[in-house]
């Protein structure tokens, strides 16, 4: 691990702002894990991030499809929600190697459900419900992850 930073997100607007700030970096071929309990704000953060990258359509949660692909200005972005995945091997069936070892940018909710089948992330974002709002801890695990943290300084 390189470094971690914490952010208090007072409300949904602060979560949307964090997504927009992270979108300023947007290095290709990055993998970001989003962790936290149900209702912690993972999907809200991903929606804001994808919309800040320039996607004008509806950003759907891939709870039942496992992955939702987007193409924004020629870049492939893949939003994963592994919450309903029963076995990490399911990633193999949907072509996980193509997503994670290609040129795409992957945002993965519930990465613990894919343990053993997922590559190491560049960035892990842990969201927790706090007394007021949410608490976000962002930890970089690569030089690409460091780029995201620098965008927040």
Search tags:
single chain, alpha/beta, 7-stranded mixed sheet
Write up this protein.
The chain has five helices and seven strands; from the N terminus they run E-H-E-H-E-E-H-H-E-E-E-H. The protein has one domain: Rossmann fold (3-Layer(aba) Sandwich), CATH 3.40.50.300. It has 153 residues and is an alpha/beta fold. Helix 1 packs across helix 2. A seven-stranded mixed beta sheet has the order 1-7-6-2-5-4-3.
Name of the CATH superfamily: P-loop containing nucleotide triphosphate hydrolases
Radius of gyration: 14 Å
Largest sheet at a glance? 7 strands, mixed
Unreliable residue stretches: none
Instruction: Give the proportion of residues in helices.
Output: 25-40%
CATH architecture: 3-Layer(aba) Sandwich
Order of adjacent strands in the largest pleated sheet: 1-7-6-2-5-4-3
Task: Using the coordinates above, name the CATH class.
Answer: Alpha Beta
Order of helices and strands: EHEHEEHHEEEH
* Number of helical stretches of at least 4 residues: 5
User: How many separate domains?
Assistant: 1
Extended strand count: 7
Portion in strands: 25-35%
What is the CA-CA span between the terminal residues? 18 Å
CATH topology: Rossmann fold
The helix/strand class is: alpha/beta
Q: In one word, what is the shape?
A: globular
Average pLDDT taken over every residue: 89
